[in-house]
């Protein structure tokens, strides 16, 4: 009998089949991990945004609710001056002191927001914001739009359309996952 070294053809085929079965079982798990990472990403950005909104409001409260020359609520938050919500007899119930846009640059009046104001809010409230646009999406991570005059919606542009919405009348930030 010959003294042979190595594997037989049958042994190699069995190993290849086993590796194929393992790959088929593991692949869906890796795909799911990517979706979970994108969900976690938008939840993290939304959490940072909510924290920044509340921090700007807290700074405004701590400074004694400052106003500009027109009587509008404003706050200088981290070197950027924001216009804030203000209750009036015209707008009904609006919680005061939440950012609506940059003072003198973007946004509407009082509790009103615009598409450009939504972009400015994300870019200026967050210290290291993801890229955001309200126009044609190129490489930006988020698309921003004022869905109503009082809400900004930020939609993730990678994969599923996960989004979060900021309501300036209450300061709430709500995440919507596209499952």
UniProtKB/TrEMBL annotation:
Protein name listed in UniProt:
MSHA biogenesis protein MshB
NCBIfam families xref list? IV_pilin_GFxxxE
Source organism of the structure: Vibrio hippocampi
Q: Does the keyword Transmembrane apply?
A: yes
Q: Which parts of the chain span the membrane according to its record?
A: 12-31
Under Pfam families, the record lists: N_methyl
Q: Where is the signal peptide?
A: none
Record lineage: Bacteria, Pseudomonadati, Pseudomonadota, Gammaproteobacteria, Vibrionales
- Keyword annotations: Membrane, Transmembrane, Transmembrane helix
